[in-house]
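Justification of computing resources. Each target in the renewal requires a structure prediction run like the one illustrated here; the chain below, 60 residues long, is used simply to show the kind of job we budget for.
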Amino acid sequence: MNDFSKKCFVCQRPIDPSTTCKNTEVNLPVCDHCKGTQAEQDALNEMNDSLSDGWFCGGM
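Resulting structure tokens:
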């Protein structure tokens, strides 16, 4: 099982959990290299899109 507190959720690089900041939207660690970048926003969009996979309104 993955420990999400030890890797940047954007680039998956190992990080020190005690010195990292977290993305406030998903509460996952993000490294200084990715913080505030388009890559971080893309990762957020992908996570949010995947939350609704298989769920829809008005189906049969």
